């Protein structure tokens, strides 16, 4: 299998608790992850090891449905999810660390490309890196944007 590992991080000028509230709520992924169509919790809150959600996305022109499970959790700081069903098995660790009056949000994405993706591992690595970096720039904009008017 073609091994894939991507890391990305972004400094955000918001309190860590606010950043955590977004990165740990996977149902909010479509707000900042390009190609993400929907994400729904399968398990009820609160977030815990064993929590699951289904994600619907598109990548390289393919529809991708994945079921993820939380496998590691340090509330307010770190969450790791594993694909337990899906086209492209990955493990994602998201961290939020206080820094310079705001926080640093990081992602570590690991996977093994199978099938046709195995042949494209070097290209896939570059595409995933660009995609993840773009997602975290969008996350920064989302978090740092002033709230809109309330009704």
Nearest-angstrom radius of gyration? 15 Å
User: What's the helix-strand series?
Assistant: EHEEEEEEHH
User: What is the share of helical residues?
Assistant: 10-25%
Strand order of the largest sheet: 1-7-6-5-4-3-2
- For this structure, what is the CATH class? Alpha Beta
Give a quick precis of the structure.
Helix content is 24%, strand content 46%. It is of the alpha+beta class and 151 residues long.
Describe the fold and architecture.
The chain is of the alpha+beta class and 151 residues long. The chain has a single domain, classed as 2-Layer Sandwich (Alpha-D-Glucose-1,6-Bisphosphate, Chain A, domain 4), CATH 3.30.530.20. The protein is 24% helix and 46% strand. The protein contains three helices and seven strands, in the order βαββββββαα. It has helices at 16-23, 116-119, 121-144; strands at residues 2-12, 36-41, 52-59, 62-74, 78-86, 90-99, 102-113. Strand 3 and strand 4 (62-74) form a beta hairpin. The longest helix is centred in the C-terminal third of the chain and has 24 residues, at 121-144. It starts with a strand and ends in a 7-residue tail after the last helix. 19% of the residues are buried.
Key words describing this protein structure:
24% helix; Alpha-D-Glucose-1,6-Bisphosphate, Chain A, domain 4; globular; alpha+beta; 151 residues
């Amino acid at each position: 299998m073609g091994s894939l590992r991507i890391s990305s991080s972004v400094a955000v000028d918001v309190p860590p608790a606010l950043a955590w509230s977004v990165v740990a709520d996977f149902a909010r992924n479509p707000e900042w992850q390009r190609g993400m169509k929907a994400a729904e919790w399968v398990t009820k809150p609160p977030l815990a090891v064993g929590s699951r959600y289904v994600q619907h996305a598109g990548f390289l022109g393919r529809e991708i449905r994945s079921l993820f499970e939380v496998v590691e959790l340090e509330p307010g700081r770190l969450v790791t999810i594993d694909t337990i069903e899906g086209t492209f098995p990955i493990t994602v660790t998201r961290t939020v660390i206080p820094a310079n009056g705001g926080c640093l949000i990081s992602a570590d994405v690991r996977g093994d490309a199978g099938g046709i993706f195995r042949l494209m591992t070097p290209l896939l690595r570059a595409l995933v890196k660009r995609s993840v970096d773009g997602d975290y720039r969008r996350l920064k904009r989302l978090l740092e944007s002033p709230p809109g008017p309330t009704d």
